[in-house]
């Protein structure tokens, strides 16, 4: 009987030609069955012929760059008015299906954050506007343009004011278009606001340096980092870039036994705070005073003049000492939207001589430009505007006291929204001119001084939409299409700044291909003007209960509230999905007899469930923004509570309230968390050490590894992996827990969304998770994190017990799942000590043989969202176990590629989705049989251990111990 | 005359009847009783049944084929690394081997029993007396080649040993 | 030398052979009472509810159950093990007690075996429906297919397939071999033509020939010899489902014998529950005497104590081993969120059966009935404790979860109770509940 | 029956043979002391002490079980296990002698302060408690065994029925205590040799070995008595029954061995597997010989009904099992106590022969103290009149 090889194993040693020579013979039983089966199947298929009426038109001439089933990557840019990322868009068979970071960009450095990762689903958001609308009725562009231009002209004639409201705009061409628009309609004002404003920082810098900018922070250069309510690893300004920098000086190895020290001063437990070596917990009201005290301490030590400030409760001398010791190697950042605080911080950095070292004013970040004052003015003069254009923004939702705006929109003659999806604002306006998704649009960006990038459409407009810029061009009466416009703009504005090695055509092509152009802008550091002498500190009094409002890592400002991927992504700290909550401290909960899930009423206005959060400031409640959307698709609607309306608008928008009242209601509201137990129970799960101990002994904290290796024995011979032996190393010291890997993994592998109800029942499907444990004092705990995915054990307890052999081991050391074979006994999952296997409890994907039992609370199986599925990964049916596959499809793709190119695979060529997107470079995948691979080198580190290694499961994931910089 | 049968209502009289018939060299065709009578097989001179051997053979076949099949599947038909266990995972094969042995043995003996005894769904065996499954004992003699005289003698033998009734059958 | 009369008679009432036949036969031709119909209705509707719940589960998905990412098996496998355990008494009684020449078994073995078969049917249902892809359940059989894939002979669940099906078939055959002579009796006494025909078919042409009887005895004895290790193997293999794993609280070597004695313990309890009802409603007091009940109670003390020793051994070893996970698992059982389940188990299985050391209680029908139900509850909780409390907090605290059954799961369990009792009620109506022929061999009045 | 009152006569000839055996044992001991390390000598002493003590214990178990279950078949041979159980006090003396060599056998005694895993077990594994436990087992075992023996002896001159009822009570107490104590005894004297290792089944596994080897001992003693011309009343059915017990408890032993091994093999956790790795790698021959002697050979022979009814075949199998159990015990003790793999030679075998001498002396002596037949036992008749199918 002919024998087909089933694995590379059985093939090794066989004559290659012989394998190819095998012929299919008719007499073979198996072939008979095959043919018989085919006959039977075709009978069924043919009998259903009348259904197969899809229209498929083949290419007459195949486009050069498109090979069916082979992905193309297009460089583009992501900017949502808040955060910037240079990206690559994976387009397969005409559909963008995945976003990766662009390696060429110094901002993203190949990484992304979870919002960028997930933003691709917004392209396929089923709630998107499909047509322009007038007063809520469908219309067409021709009609709507005529009407709008008419009205604009009328307003112009009447000399009425027109406002274009937008978030920060970093597109040079768009800016120019708005300028053109202004030329056409001179009464136009462009008002910029940021939902999460940093106006205070910008203004402080203006005062200190004469330039309203965000300086270029260099976390990698700092030995001591002090973050004051600045979640720079999670949400603040440019978290991906900062994480990349931060981790550089956090990673340790046998060759580099130093790391920076990170002190975080904050009220709520932020992602950044949870990574700090030391956390100082303050109430928001204490912050400015603390900064002032710190300033005084440093000034005093340096013989400079102090400012008048009352003594603060927290002793800052140690902190000041540490900073002084690391003069010009330290960095103090503050995330509070308060000019005075920011001025003080600037002065501290100045005293510490950090400017030019860890902070540069060159190449300033431009992603946030909003001026609180502009918006305050606009809101107070609403009546004077005859026309308002909402340029991809939603102030009715994300600006405080928006009732005024709501009423005024109704009374304004001309209101236009350029939103892609229905939101609170666009539902009120007269004209909805739906914009393209950014993946359907041309655009250019200038995220940093000297850095330019392009965005190119990766798919034709799915609906009858038009990008904002085109609308403005049209209304301004400019005939150019936007691409031409950008090109011209670049030719005249940007190209001249380059060294002009290429002619413009080549420059343009190269820029488009690379996605980014980075030009060295050298200018001298601006002079620092310290005028603290006149500063008068805010009169903050510590109260019984304060409120801190923060930006959540996953949902951000709330723009992506309808993105179920982001909603289901657990919060990096609390692990809560599908909700925001009022974080309260353990002591407060005890005092007030509150438990997680109890609903409280704050200031008699909002009701919100509490979450007992270790490390929370005792008298402060923290609540995330971005929830409580009312006009949004199903996934975001009525999820959580909106706290934008609690923000106080004084000179600056204040994201903390000095005094609030609260009362406990009788209601409860279940919060869906993915992790219900926070303590490691003294187990040897995350191993850690301190840098001092590490310097003495690189094995410190990991002594047990050697002990266990000594007893490493087996009743049977271990399998030898002769070709590749895939493995992964996870550096627990690098991982910040930002969750981007989880998002990327879910997107890459078609992990279904199950919705809050199912998460509550512990039915979430994520293939990887980031375990977070607290240790020590519950009021100020230490936090450890550990990404856990399938450990690909070489002696896997799960494989043994599968009755049908649906899960088994590949010849390259991968624990593989044959979904087709799986009958869903869940035995493997029970027997997995890591609990990384996930079961398809329902038919999440519309792939079940039985009809009418779809479980898809968030419409992921509708025709449109389905487009985002990765065709290289099987969609799993109901009743099937699934789990991390080491992105087997990527391994196969690269192996095939190398084979076609007739070369050996290179180390680092294969990157699983989690590794590729990790901003912390915490994950390294590779071949253990290649002794020079990065993963092999990491395996050599004395910090390497395996999770539950005493069980002798022989995992293929190695963890490197966490090192803290504390004594 | 083909058969003579004697009817008893006591186990003891049955046993003595059978004994005396055998002492007189009269061939007993069969005895029917409502329950297995202790010592009857000795009295009738029945040989031990070979049925346990069927079970033994069945069990051996079951065990060998069970084990062989598993070994073939794991080492020849589709060798695959499962949990790092050896392909020839003998301890893992024991349970199935054991179950196969028991199953084959049980079916071998039961089927042999039914086959040998002409028992089976819908089988239509001759019933001498319906009370033989209740409280009567019946001794049936094969008398195809004996004459009336002898038959009378046999009848008296029956009656002597306490038979309630004696019947002739052609 | 004293006479053999030192042994008390096994059945009471000084029965003649005919009396026995009448006592067993009469209920079969008698019109069933209202109570029987009422029972059948209740059991039938329970079964129907269960079937609806099963269909719903297969159609909608296992998500209808309370199991989750951490606790993959909840009520389904708890019920499976519970039913399999109950299904051990019958074959234990007919096989092991036969080998040990415990003649008192003859009065109870028929109904105990029937119970075994019905319990195994109920048990076998759960592994089938707990599969996510019930419709592809046939994958677990090693049949030749075009892809040339076979099953995984390393998997205890696969061993289960072989063990449970072998056990079911052998028990069925064993039971039926014993039934054939009694069915012959019924056939011969049946007056209605139609019924006679049916019993004729069922009785396989039994005549009562001495040769048949000789073979019958040999076959029974050999089957008993085969079934005895088979009984041990079945629950042993069920215990392997847990013991082969690496989960603390599951992986312990004592499981095989401990599960077997637990199974016999619970099986006897269920036999008692049923027989105490049956002897009352069917007037079988002479056959199932207080002596029988006392003997069964003694086996209950024995097996219950073995189970108790096993609990203690596990507890001690959890500490002695020095494995932190193991120790935690046991502390968590006793004091964790499922402490109540653990203490129900302890009270019902270890502490309360010790009351049977008192002869008075051992011979009290009412108390025995009460205890039989207590033990059934206790043994159900034992399986629940083993499955749920071990899984819900295993190695990584990040994955710790709680498990709560849903209505669907409860309905399925109630459904299997319905199926079980429906079968049993039909059995007592149409089949001889007492092994007549075997009882006849034990009486002296013949 | 005329020989109801027959007792055993312990003839000079037999005594001489037994003395020779004992002297072989002494010679082996002397040879051992001169040639081997104390570890090996104490290990061998432990092996034999425990082995024969538990045979005596198993005999009491036999008596107790049959009393409780109201069996009748065994009555004709009941005096043999009773006589065997009378070895217990002598076995106890050897156990007490063993106390002087504890630190040569149990490495936890000196490692308790260096080894955290052992230190964790100190509440259980400490010498005073260890000795206290031993004294408790021995005193309860011996006193209950004597009670049972006394009741049985008394029945010869009194009312058999009453004695039976009385013995049931003591048998029940013995069973409860035995079931608990033998498990803990096994942990103490056998499992703690490998102080790191643990297995919940171990106690029951040892128990199954105890039962099977006491059956073997009963058969062997019976064969000796038959050889000497006693016990002619033993029927083929009795032999068949004994063989069946040997056969089925052999299977039971195998079942427990397999359960323990398979579960450890399957999970493959080093903290458990090292026990078997050591034994398979270093004691390969004995490891597999153990299975052959205790299961495979007796199984294949005794599965045939004819063989089960022939005394010499059954006796041969009993001897095989007896040796098998010795090997099993050897595997429990020596790999744990010895640093290097020892060889089995004159010393090991001679010492066991010596123990056999003492053991048989004790058994035969006890047989002279009562009738060979428990003549007033109410079920005596039954044991002569039954048949095996």
Please specify the SSE layout and strand pairing.
The complex is a heterotetramer of chains A (967), B (170), C (446) and D (389).
Chain A: H1 8-11, H2 16-21, H3 29-47, E1 71-79, E2 84-92, E3 95-101, H4 114-118, H5 120-123, E4 133-134, E5 137-138, H6 141-158, E6 161-166, H7 172-184, E7 188-192, H8 199-209, E8 214-217, E9 224-228, H9 239-248, E10 261-266, H10 271-275, E11 278-281, H11 287-301, H12 317-325, E12 330-334, H13 339-351, E13 359-365, H14 372-380, E14 385-391, H15 395-398, H16 403-411, E15 414-417, E16 431-432, E17 443-448, E18 451-455, H17 468-476, H18 482-494, H19 504-514, E19 516-518, E20 546-550, H20 564-568, E21 576-577, E22 582-584, H21 586-592, E23 598-602, E24 606-612, E25 620-624, E26 648-649, E27 653-654, E28 656-657, E29 662-668, E30 672-673, E31 688-690, H22 691-696, H23 703-710, E32 726-731, H24 740-748, H25 756-760, E33 769-775, E34 782-788, H26 797-801, E35 807-809, E36 815-817, H27 827-831, E37 838-839, H28 863-866, E38 881-882, H29 888-900, H30 913-917, E39 923-927, H31 934-940, E40 944-945, E41 957-960, E42 962-964
Parallel strand pairs in A: 6-7, 6-14, 9-10, 9-12, 10-11, 14-15, 15-16, 20-25, 22-24, 31-42, 32-41
Antiparallel strand pairs in A: 1-2, 2-3, 4-5, 4-16, 8-13, 17-18, 18-19, 20-28, 21-30, 22-25, 23-24, 23-29, 26-27, 32-39, 33-34, 35-36, 37-38, 40-41
Helix pairs in contact in A: 6-17, 7-17, 8-13, 11-12, 11-13
Chain B: E1 3-8, H1 11-23, E2 28-32, H2 40-44, H3 51-77, H4 90-116, E3 137-142, H5 148-160, E4 165-169
Chain D: H1 12-35, H2 38-68, H3 79-85, H4 88-98, H5 102-105, H6 108-111, H7 116-120, H8 127-155, H9 160-189, H10 202-227, H11 236-267, H12 270-282, H13 284-302, H14 305-308, H15 311-337, H16 346-367, H17 380-384
Helix pairs in contact in D: 1-16, 2-3, 2-4, 2-9, 2-10, 2-15, 2-16, 3-16, 4-8, 8-9, 9-10, 10-11, 10-15, 11-13, 11-15, 12-13, 13-15
Give structural notes.
The complex is a heterotetramer of chains A (about 950), B (about 170), C (about 450) and D (about 400). Chain B has about 170 residues and is α+β, with helices and mostly antiparallel strands. Chain B has two domains: about 5-45 and about 125-170, Alpha-Beta Plaits (2-Layer Sandwich); about 50-115, no CATH class. In chain B, about 50% of the residues lie in helices and about 15% in strands. Chain B has a four-stranded antiparallel β-sheet, covered by helices on one side. In chain B, α3 runs antiparallel to α4 (about 90-115). Chain B is rod-shaped, with a radius of gyration of 25 Å. The termini of chain B are close together. The mean pLDDT of chain B is about 85. In chain C, about 70% of the residues lie in helices and about 0% in strands. Chain C has one domain: Up-down Bundle (Formate dehydrogenase/DMSO reductase fold). The radius of gyration of chain C is 23 Å and the shape is globular. Chain D is mainly α and about 400 residues long. Chain D has one domain (about 1-380). Chain D is about 75% helix and about 0% strand. Chain D has helices spanning about 10-35, 40-70, 80-85, 90-100, 100-105, 110, 115-120, 125-155, 160-190, 200-225, 235-265, 270-280, 285-300, 305-310, 310-335, 345-365, 380-385. Chain D is globular, with a radius of gyration of 21 Å. The model of chain D has no long low-confidence stretch (mean pLDDT about 90). Chains B and C meet through β2, α2, α3 and α4 of B and α1, α6, α7, α8 and α16 of C.
């Amino acid at each position: 009987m002919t024998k087909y090889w089933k694995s590379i194993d059985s093939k090794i040693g066989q004559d290659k030609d012989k394998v190819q020579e095998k012929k299919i013979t008719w007499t073979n039983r198996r072939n008979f069955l095959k043919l018989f089966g085919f006959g039977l199947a075709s009978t069924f298929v043919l009998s259903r012929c009348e259904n197969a009426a899809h229209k498929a038109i083949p290419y007459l001439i195949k486009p050069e760059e498109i090979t069916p089933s082979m992905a193309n990557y297009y460089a583009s840019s992501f900017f949502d008015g808040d955060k910037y990322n240079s990206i690559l868009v994976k387009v397969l068979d005409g559909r963008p299906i995945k976003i990766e970071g662009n390696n060429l960009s110094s901002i993203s450095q190949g990484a992304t954050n979870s919002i960028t990762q997930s933003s691709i689903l917004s392209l396929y958001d089923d709630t998107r506007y499909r047509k322009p609308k007038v007063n809520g009725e469908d219309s067409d562009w021709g009609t709507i343009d005529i009407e709008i231009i008419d009205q604009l002209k009328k307003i112009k004639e009447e000399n009425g004011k027109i406002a274009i409201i937008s978030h920060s705009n970093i597109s040079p061409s768009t800016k120019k278009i708005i300028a053109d628009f202004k030329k056409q309609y001179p009464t136009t004002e462009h008002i910029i606001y940021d939902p999460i404003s940093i106006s205070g920082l910008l203004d402080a810098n203006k005062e200190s340096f004469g330039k309203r900018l965000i300086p270029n922070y260099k976390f990698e250069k700092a030995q001591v980092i002090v973050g004051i309510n600045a979640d720079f690893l999670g949400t603040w300004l440019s978290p991906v870039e900062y994480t990349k920098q931060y981790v550089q000086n956090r990673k340790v190895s046998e060759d580099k036994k130093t790391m920076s020290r990170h002190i975080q001063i904050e009220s709520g437990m932020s992602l950044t705070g949870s990574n700090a070596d030391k956390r100082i917990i303050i109430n928001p009201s204490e912050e400015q005073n603390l900064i002032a005290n710190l300033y005084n301490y440093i000034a005093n030590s340096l013989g400079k003049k102090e400012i008048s400030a009352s003594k603060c409760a927290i002793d800052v001398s140690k902190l000041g000492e540490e900073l002084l010791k690391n003069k010009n190697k330290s960095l103090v950042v503050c995330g509070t939207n308060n000019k005075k605080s920011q001025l003080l911080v600037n002065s501290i950095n100045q005293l510490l001589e950090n400017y030019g070292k860890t902070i540069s004013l060159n190449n300033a970040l431009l992603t946030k430009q909003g001026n609180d004052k502009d918006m305050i003015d606009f809101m107070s003069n609403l009546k004077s505007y005859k026309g308002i254009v909402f340029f991809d923004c939603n102030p009715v939702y994300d600006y405080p006291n928006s009732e005024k705006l709501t009423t005024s929109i109704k009374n304004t003659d001309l209101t236009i929204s350029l939103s892609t999806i229905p939101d609170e604002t666009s539902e009120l306006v007269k004209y909805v001119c739906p914009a393209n998704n950014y993946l359907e649009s041309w655009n250019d960006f200038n995220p940093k001084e000297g850095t330019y990038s392009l965005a190119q459409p990766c798919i034709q407009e799915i609906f009858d939409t038009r990008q904002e810029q085109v609308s403005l061009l049209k209304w301004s009466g400019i005939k150019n299409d936007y691409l031409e416009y950008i090109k011209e703009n670049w030719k005249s504005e940007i190209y001249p700044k380059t060294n002009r090695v290429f002619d413009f055509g080549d420059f343009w092509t190269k820029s488009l291909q690379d996605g980014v152009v980075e030009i060295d802008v050298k200018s001298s550091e601006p002079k620092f003007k310290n005028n603290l002498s006149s500063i008068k500190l805010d009169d903050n009094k510590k109260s019984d209960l304060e409120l801190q409002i923060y930006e959540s890592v996953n949902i951000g400002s709330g723009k992506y509230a309808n993105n179920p991927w982001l909603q289901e992504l657990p919060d990096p700290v609390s692990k809560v999905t599908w909700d925001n909550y009022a974080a309260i401290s353990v002591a407060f909960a005890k005092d007030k007899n509150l438990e997680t899930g109890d609903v409280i009423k704050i200031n008699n206005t909002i009701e919100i469930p509490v979450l007992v959060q270790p490390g929370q400031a005792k008298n402060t409640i923290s609540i995330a923004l971005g929830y409580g959307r009312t006009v949004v698709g199903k996934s975001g609607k009525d999820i959580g509570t909106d706290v934008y309306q609690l923000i106080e608008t004084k000179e600056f928008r204040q994201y903390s309230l000095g005094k609030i009242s609260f009362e406990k209601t009788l209601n409860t509201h279940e919060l869906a968390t993915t992790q219900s137990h926070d303590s490691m129970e003294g187990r040897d799960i995350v191993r850690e050490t301190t840098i001092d101990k590490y310097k003495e002994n690189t094995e410190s904290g990991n002594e047990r590894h050697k002990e266990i290796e000594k007893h490493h024995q087996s009743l049977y011979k271990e399998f030898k992996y002769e070709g590749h032996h895939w493995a992964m190393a996870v550096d627990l010291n690098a991982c910040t827990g930002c969750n981007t890997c989880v998002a990327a993994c879910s997107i890459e592998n078609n992990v279904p969304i199950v919705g809050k109800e199912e998460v509550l029942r512990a039915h979430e499907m994520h293939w990887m998770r980031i375990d977070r444990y607290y240790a020590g004092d519950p009021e100020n705990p230490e936090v450890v994190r550990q990404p856990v995915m399938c450990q690909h054990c070489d002696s896997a307890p799960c494989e043994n017990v599968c009755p049908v052999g649906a899960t088994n081991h590949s010849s390259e050391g991968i624990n593989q799942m044959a979904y087709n074979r799986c009958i869903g006994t869940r035995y493997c999952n029970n027997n997995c000590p890591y609990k990384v296997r996930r079961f398809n409890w329902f038919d999440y994907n519309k792939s079940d043989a039985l009809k009418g039992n779809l479980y898809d609370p968030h419409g992921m199986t509708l025709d449109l969202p389905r487009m985002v599925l990765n065709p290289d990964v099987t969609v799993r049916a109901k009743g099937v176990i699934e789990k991390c596959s080491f992105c087997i499809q990527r391994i196969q793709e690269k192996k095939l590629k190398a084979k076609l190119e007739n070369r050996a695979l290179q180390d680092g060529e294969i990157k699983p989705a989690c590794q590729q997107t990790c901003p912390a470079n915490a994950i390294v995948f590779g071949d253990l049989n290649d002794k020079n691979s990065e993963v092999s080198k990491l395996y050599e580190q004395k910090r390497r251990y395996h999770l539950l290694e005493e069980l002798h499961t022989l995992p293929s994931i190695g963890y490197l111990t966490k090192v803290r910089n504390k004594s | 005359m083909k058969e003579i049968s004697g009817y008893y209502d006591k186990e003891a009289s049955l046993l003595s009847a059978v004994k005396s018939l055998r002492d007189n060299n009269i061939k007993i065709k069969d005895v029917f009783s409502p329950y297995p009578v202790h010592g009857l097989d000795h009295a009738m001179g029945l040989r031990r049944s070979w049925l346990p051997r069927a079970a033994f053979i069945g069990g051996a076949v079951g065990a060998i084929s069970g084990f062989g099949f598993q070994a073939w599947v794991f080492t020849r038909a589709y060798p695959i690394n499962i949990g790092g266990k050896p392909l020839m995972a003998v301890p893992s094969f024991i349970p199935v081997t054991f179950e196969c042995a028991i199953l084959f043995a049980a079916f071998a003996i039961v089927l042999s029993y039914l086959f040998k005894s002409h028992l089976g769904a819908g089988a239509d065996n001759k019933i001498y007396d319906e009370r033989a499954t209740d409280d009567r004992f019946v001794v049936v003699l094969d008398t195809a080649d004996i004459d009336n005289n002898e038959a009378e003698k046999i009848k008296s033998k029956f009656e002597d040993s306490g038979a309630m009734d004696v019947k002739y059958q052609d | 030398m004293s006479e053999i009369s030192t042994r008390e008679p096994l059945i009471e009432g000084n029965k003649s052979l005919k009396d026995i036949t009448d006592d067993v036969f009469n209920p079969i031709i008698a019109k069933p009472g209202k109570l029987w119909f009422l029972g059948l209705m209740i059991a039938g509707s329970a079964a129907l509810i269960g079937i609806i719940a099963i269909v719903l589960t297969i159609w909608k998905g296992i998500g209808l159950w309370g199991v989750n990412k951490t606790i993959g098996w909840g009520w389904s496998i708890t019920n499976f093990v519970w039913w399999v355990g109950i299904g051990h008494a019958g074959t234990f009684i007919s096989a092991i007690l036969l080998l040990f020449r415990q003649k008192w078994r003859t009065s109870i073995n028929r109904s105990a075996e029937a119970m075994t078969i019905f319990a195994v049917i109920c048990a076998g249902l759960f592994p089938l429906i707990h599969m996510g892809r019930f419709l592809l359940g046939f994958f677990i059989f090693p049949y030749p297919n075009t892809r040339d894939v076979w099953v995984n002979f390393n998997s205890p669940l696969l061993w289960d397939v072989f063990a449970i099906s072998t056990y079911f078939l052998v028990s069925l055959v064993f039971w039926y071999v014993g039934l054939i002579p009694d069915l012959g009796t019924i056939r011969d006494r049946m007056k209605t033509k139609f019924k006679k025909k049916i019993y004729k078919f069922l009785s396989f042409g039994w005549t009562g020939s001495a040769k048949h009887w000789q073979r019958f005895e040999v076959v029974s004895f050999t089957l008993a010899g085969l079934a005895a290790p088979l009984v041990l193997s079945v629950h042993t293999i069920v215990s392997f489902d847990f013991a082969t794993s690496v989960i603390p609280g599951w992986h312990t070597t004592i499981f095989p014998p401990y599960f077997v004695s637990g199974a016999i313990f619970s099986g006897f309890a269920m036999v008692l529950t049923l027989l105490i009802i049956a002897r009352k409603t069917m007037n079988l007091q002479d056959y199932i005497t207080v002596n029988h009940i006392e003997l069964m109670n003694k086996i209950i003390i024995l097996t219950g104590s073995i189970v108790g020793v096993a609990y203690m051994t596990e507890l001690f070893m959890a500490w002695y081993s020095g494995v932190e996970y193991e120790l935690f698992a046991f502390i968590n059982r006793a004091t964790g969120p499922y402490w109540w389940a653990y203490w129900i188990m302890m009270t019902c299985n270890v502490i309360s059966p010790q009351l049977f050391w008192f002869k008075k209680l051992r011979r009290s029908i009412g108390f025995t009935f009460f205890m039989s139900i207590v033990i059934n509850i206790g043994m159900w909780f034992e399986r629940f404790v083993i499955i749920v409390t071990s899984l819900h907090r295993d190695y990584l605290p990040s994955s710790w979860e709680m498990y709560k059954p849903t209505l669907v799961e409860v309905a399925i369990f109630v459904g299997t109770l319905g199926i079980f009792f429906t079968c049993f009620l039909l059995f007592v109506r149409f089949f001889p509940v007492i092994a007549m022929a075997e009882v006849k061999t034990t009486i002296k009045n013949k | 029956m005329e020989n109801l009152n027959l007792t055993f006569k312990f003839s000079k000839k037999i005594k001489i043979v037994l003395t020779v055996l004992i002297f072989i044992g002494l010679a082996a001991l002397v040879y051992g002391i001169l040639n081997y390390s104390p570890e090996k000598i104490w290990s061998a002493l432990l092996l034999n002490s425990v082995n024969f003590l538990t045979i005596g214990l198993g005999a009491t178990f036999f008596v107790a079980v049959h009393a409780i279950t109201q069996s009748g078949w065994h009555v004709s041979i009941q005096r043999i296990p009773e006589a065997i159980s009378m070895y217990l006090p002598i076995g106890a003396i050897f156990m007490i002698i063993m106390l002087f060599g504890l630190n040569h056998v149990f490495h936890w005694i000196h490692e308790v302060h260096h080894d955290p895993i052992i230190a964790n077990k100190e509440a259980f594994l400490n010498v005073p408690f260890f000795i206290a436990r031993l004294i408790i087992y021995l005193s309860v075992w011996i006193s209950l065994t004597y009670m049972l023996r006394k009741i049985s002896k008394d029945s010869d001159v009194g009312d058999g029925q009453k004695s039976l009822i009385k013995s049931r009570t003591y048998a029940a107490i013995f069973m409860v205590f035995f079931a608990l104590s033998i498990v803990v005894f096994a942990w103490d004297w056998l499992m703690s040799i490998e102080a790191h290792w643990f297995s919940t089944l171990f106690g029951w596994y040892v128990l199954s070995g105890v039962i099977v080897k006491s059956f073997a001992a009963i058969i062997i003693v019976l064969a000796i008595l038959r050889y000497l011309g006693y016990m002619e009343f033993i029927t083929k059915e009795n032999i068949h029954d004994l063989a069946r017990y040997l056969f089925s408890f052999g299977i039971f032993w195998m079942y427990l061995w397999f359960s323990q091994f398979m579960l450890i093999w399957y999970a493959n956790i080093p903290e458990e597997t090292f026990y078997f790795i050591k034994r398979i790698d270093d004691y390969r021959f004995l490891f597999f010989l153990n299975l052959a002697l205790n299961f495979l050979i007796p199984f294949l022979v005794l599965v045939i009904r004819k063989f089960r009814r022939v005394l010499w075949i059954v006796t041969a199998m009993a001897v095989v099992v007896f040796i098998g159990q010795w090997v099993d015990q050897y595997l429990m003790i020596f790999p744990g106590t010895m640093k290097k793999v020892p060889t089995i030679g004159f010393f090991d075998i001679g010492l066991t022969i010596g123990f056999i001498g003492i053991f048989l002396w004790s058994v035969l002596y006890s047989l002279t103290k009562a009738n060979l037949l428990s003549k007033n036992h109410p079920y005596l008749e039954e044991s002569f009149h039954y048949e095996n199918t």
